[in-house]
Amino acid sequence: MVQFDLSDRETIFSSLPPGGIGAEIGVDFGEISKVIRRNAKPRLLYRVDVWIEQSRAVCGHDPANYRQEIKDAAYRQVLGWFVVDEGVRVVKEFSEIAAPMFPDDYFDWLFLDANHLRCYEDIQAWWPKVKSGSWLMGHDYCTAGDFITVEESVDRFIAETGLPLLTTDDPIYKCWIIQKP
Ligand SMILES: C[S@@+](CC[C@H](N)C(=O)[O-])C[C@H]1O[C@@H](n2cnc3c(N)ncnc32)[C@H](O)[C@@H]1O
């Protein structure tokens, strides 16, 4: 039985049982990925990001939707840090294409932080990939501008499943956690 320390994003990763298989979906420059690696201590961590500049129609005015040159730099940085780390695999792909590459019931935890207008679709894609008893989590449980509708997506999934929802104590941009029965 895991008791999450819900203080913030860093503490929830410290609360996870070490030695699992985890994934971060939406990595950007990898700064939080380093924290995840350090705090969660997985035996294998997948980093999934498409690292492609997308249209406003897809992402809204997401400040992380940089020009392609900057996306390329972010990808190179993440590859460079982890290319010799046997505990890390980098997957440069759209979330919705990457999810079916994995077997069902594979991950001990999974953290969604990719397209914040597609969180419901990401939950649907990745939920089967999480083991029973394990956790689907994510960032930015809120509504902001024209580029974050995560709260609505998570609440919809909770309404459909009746599962309990945990959120961190951050004043905004909270993390959300759902345990798979
Ligand atoms: C908010 S940033 C991630 C931030 C990172 N988790 C952190 O805390 O440092 C969102 C990332 O998701 C990626 N992204 C957006 N849509 C995506 C999709 N459909 N599939 C995979 N990655 C996507 C973007 O390239 C961007 O790097």
Keywords:
Rossmann fold, 7 helices, alpha/beta, single chain, 181 residues, 25% strand, seven-stranded mixed β-sheet, binds S-adenosylmethionine, two-stranded antiparallel sheet, 9 strands
How would you describe the overall organization of this protein?
- The longest helix has 15 residues, at 68-82.
- The protein has seven helices and nine strands; from the N terminus they run αβαβααβαβαβββαββ.
- Helix 1 (9-15) runs parallel beside helix 2 (31-40) and helix 6 (119-126) crosses helix 7 (150-161).
- It has one domain (9-179): 3-Layer(aba) Sandwich (Rossmann fold), CATH 3.40.50.150.
- The chain has a seven-stranded mixed β-sheet, with helices on both faces. Strands 6-7 form a two-stranded antiparallel sheet.
- It has 181 residues and is an alpha/beta fold.
- Bound molecules: S-adenosylmethionine (SAM).
- S-adenosylmethionine is lined by residues 26-28, 31-32, 49-51, 64, 94-95, 113-115.
CATH architecture: 3-Layer(aba) Sandwich
Q: Please give the share of residues in helix.
A: 25-40%
Uncertain segments of ≥5 residues (pLDDT<50)? none
Distance between the termini: 13 Å
Short description:
This protein is of the alpha/beta class and 181 residues long. The protein is 33% helix and 25% strand.
